[in-house]
Amino acid sequence: MEDLFAYDSTTVNVASTVNFVDDTIVHYLEAYNTSTINVSGGGAFVEFLDAYDSSTVNIYGGWIESIEAQGSSPVNLNIHGGTVDQLLASKNTDINVYGGSVGSIEAYGGSVITFHGTGFNHDYGAIPAPDLSAGLTGILGNGDVIDIGFTLDSSVSINLIEQAVVPVPGAVLLGILGLSIAGVKLRKHA
């Protein structure tokens, strides 16, 4: 396993972008300044991911054991898929969860966490942090079921945004194929 660090240049205004795809295994990954980390693919594995400053982390797949985000400006963390076992947002972190699986979230210091989906066990809109002590359940925008526990301080903002569940394209095709086969079988028996 490798340790990787993504930095911006301090002398040239150019951001670093690092993409991790299938069969990438990283022990320790750090993102600084305005760098961007993209993790995708089922075989990508990152043991520890730390994001600082104004960096952005996009997770589309893979497995991340632990994420720690803390910034002087907001760190942007977007979870679209994959698995995150533990997430710690210690200050100034904007977290958007559209899909995937998150085991637990611990957040402090003015972080903002937004869940996009439907069927939550709380009303849509802003929720006071103490009201989530029992956790959050629902269906995320990509159809993944969420059942998550929190440790939050009173400075954390939680938002629930209603988003229609968008089925996986393969599921739609399988449904159409199943209906067409059923139609053919019914016509043969008629």
Descriptive report:
With 190 residues, the protein is mainly beta. It has one domain. Helices cover 11% and strands 53% of the residues. The protein contains one helix and 14 strands. It has a five-stranded mixed barrel with strand order 8-9-13-12-10. A hairpin with a 4-residue loop joins strand 12 (136-140) and strand 13 (145-152). The chain is globular. The model has no long low-confidence stretch (mean pLDDT 81).
In short:
The chain has 190 residues and is mainly beta.
Class from helix and strand fractions:
mainly beta
Secondary structure: number of strands: 14
Mean pLDDT value: 81
Q: Give the count of structural domains.
A: 1
Number of helices: 1
Rg (CA only): 19 Å
Large-scale geometry: globular
Task: Give unreliable regions as ranges.
Answer: none
